[in-house]
From TrEMBL:
Transmembrane helix as UniProt keyword: yes
TM spans (from-to): 145-170, 200-221, 351-375
Organism: Blastopirellula marina
Protein name, per record: Type II secretion system protein GspF domain-containing protein
Lineage, top ranks: Bacteria, Pseudomonadati, Planctomycetota, Planctomycetia, Pirellulales
Protein family per UniProt: Belongs to the GSP F family.
Membrane-topology descriptor: Multi-pass membrane protein
UniProt keyword annotations, A-Z: Cell membrane, Membrane, Transmembrane, Transmembrane helix
Main location: membrane
Pfam families reported in the protein's UniProt record: T2SSF
Localization terms from the record: Cell membrane
Gene Ontology CC: plasma membrane
Positions of region (Disordered): 1-40
UniProt domain Type II secretion system protein GspF: residue ranges: 50-172, 252-365
Amino acid sequence: MQSPFSSSNHESELDRPLVDSAETVDGSKAERQITPTPISLTPAESAELLRCISELSASGMPLDAGLEAFAEEVSQRKLKLAFRQLAKEIRAGGNPLVDHDLSFVQLPKYHQSVLVAGIQSNRLGETLYELLEEENWRNEYWRDLWAALSYPLLLATVTLLIVDFLNVFIMPMIQTQFLSIYEEFELDLPFDPDIFRAPIISWTSFFLLGGVGVFLIPAFLTPAQTSLLKRSVPVVGKIFWWYESLDLIIKLRLVVAQNIPIPAALRLLEDAVASRRYAELLPVWAEKMEQGKQLGEVWQVSPDIPPSILPLVRWGETHNSLAEALESAERLLKERLALRRELIRKIGPPVITILVLGALFWAAIRLVVLVSPLIDLIEALS
């Protein structure tokens, strides 16, 4: 297999320096060098770039020619420019996949480190493949989870709109008509008519305001408070916790497997983890480990790490097999997430059905209470 920095022999426009024409005072044309603009890739764009590099590494194709070929296939303009810029830098004799500070293509810090570690361990293709496979698993999990929630949420939304339609439009009109009849006949009602003159509450507006509050409240809370609040949400709270923990475990395992020291790996993940709380704790954990503590000891006193994975971490450190222990913890968290997703899929429809029946029962009771005096009046008149 050729080196990932091997270059093909054919020439292209990317081999020539970027130049532009400028007109001098005497009207002649002069060429001036153009400095490329730095290209900062998002995590999704960087993952697509790493996927292409992984395929090229596995095939043994020269990286510069392969990147140019991929540049013709992608539709995103920024990715197209990034592929071509990397090919140009490789042909110029540089190592842009290792010397990121000298490259105009900027990847997320975590992707840069995994890329360098894979090259240094001569496992570039396998490392990138594993990284992308784990990211795909997490993306597919969220898609499956939202698919499991979509039917209950749709049914709940329709029920809420129907209840609001009855509560805001239909019932007030019926109540006004019936109360006017009762007042005209001066009936003694078995209920206080002021109950039906109370201000109307729109449950749709109530839940919309609650949803807005859910998104706004974290802006006024610390990462620790936000994390605690998310975990306290019934049914789905544990999903947030386990998912963020899984994200941390996977990324830590991939870095540790490349023989990167654990304190350095923890600091490396500070800009890569999905959780703000973990991003805040990572440098603290790294500092404690640099003072001589083990990872298991550091996590033992942290309420932010699921306790069930701590025995695996301690076993891995004791037997010098932390990467394997983290892989076992990863499988454990994946199984828990899958079980919780199936639980939502199974209990969601019955719970929503009960809520629908409850809403219909509530509307029927209100109607019966309102109509019963009219029935008594009809019987008395007949």
